[in-house]
Amino acid sequence: MNQNLPQRDSGAYSGAAPVAGTAEAVSHDNNDVSTSKIWQVITASSVGTVIEWYDFYIFGSLAAIIGPVLFGSTGKIEDTILGTLAVFGAGFVVRPFGAVFFGRIGDMIGRKYTFLLTLLIMGGATFVTGLIPSYDKIGVAAPIIVTLLRLLQGLALGGEYGGATTYVAEHSPDNKRGYYTSFIQITATAGLFLSILVIITTRKTMGEDAFKEWGWRIPFLLSGLLVIASYYIRRKLHESPLFAKAKAEGKTSTNPLRESFVNPVNRRLVLISLFGATMGQGVVWYTGQFYAYSFMQNTLKLDLVDASLVLCIALLIATPFFVYFGSLSDRIGRKKIIMMGLLCGALFTIPIFYGLKAFAGPLTEVTAATVDATGKAVPAVMKALTPQLVPMTVLTFCLVLFVTMAYGPIAAYLVELFPTKVRYTSLSLPYHIGNGVFGGFVPFIATALTLRAAAQPEGTLFKTYSSFAGLLYPVIIALICWFIGQALMKDVRNVKLMEENSGDVK
Q: I need a labelling partner for 457 at 20 to 30 A (CA). Which of 77, 118, 335, 341 fits?
């Protein structure tokens, strides 16, 4: 690596990648990029990624409401929720295909233009979802359109994360890569937080009846404005300096798929990163954030506002730890922190959910005034929860803390495993299989296991602890991943990405 080059503020190249042989592209060093340029890159990349996660999560957050509208009602709310969650999960299944498709484009054409394309596809699909007529009006066409749009979203999201992560990492100094890439790791949590905030605000502003009838469409339609703003910001970005250098030297891959998955050394790294890191990280993430929110509403029957307060406060308090653990990984290594997050998730998830149920409080009878058919005020006895929100928030914070440990350093870990010419493709596939398939189906599988356990005969073990039956899936997956990661993962950090052998971890 040339240490005698003068420092430049540009840090990248405007427009398309430079023509092969240009001196600026060949001489660029990612360790010479100015701090101001890195923050511009992080901001532009993060804004778009937050919007894409927002788009993805509003569907899952509104599953119980949009299910009867767009999928029709069978008369059983459980069937409706499971059907909607299955379509939600379908978007995760195609994420690996999006990773392969857009990863190939990103490794051949460039990082910038690829995740501009993913942003437009994701935002367009979300906006159109808000315009779909109800099942009552167009029949089976409604769920078919929704499913197709979810598949498009999954494909786009499959290309988004790899692009944003690679782009930021290739601008970052070698000794601070964990720190800077950890800001991209915040975006998934920020997107979930934003989706909840928009839904709650809209719901409370217009009233429950209006929101269920047509107001649920507003969060989807709002995505159109957010995507336009994000596209404008991203459009000003320059191509990644490392990719521009590789292209100028004629060292980009002509077949990223073959080099990523046929090459035995690279294929082994892809499999280790999947089964030793991202698989467990995915289930810890979706259990600690998304399923915890669903559990509080659907199983514990918490009021929407109470459940949202618990989760949002926990997210706000825990979010800085993404950066803390990302930065710590620059100093002590990625593997130790990721493995600790997986182990904590495996050991403490069920006890924490048990505590959430205990602190949710029993149903108590309360008396409220109501009006009978003649208009006369009469007392009515209703049942309501009296949850202890503070201890529930603390417990939820612990769940999210495990997420920050497993997720904060993982972007830097994946980036440093693979060489520049196939980095976009190679890191995207294990990430999106681990998060999309194993993690994305946590809500569906956990809910299905819970309902199956609840249907068992009285007095059986599964019936008694049916509320927690769904947690067996993420706990077992996290534990398996921890064993594999401990045995096979190499603890790489601060790899010199500009060198020819970067990413060749033996």
A: 77
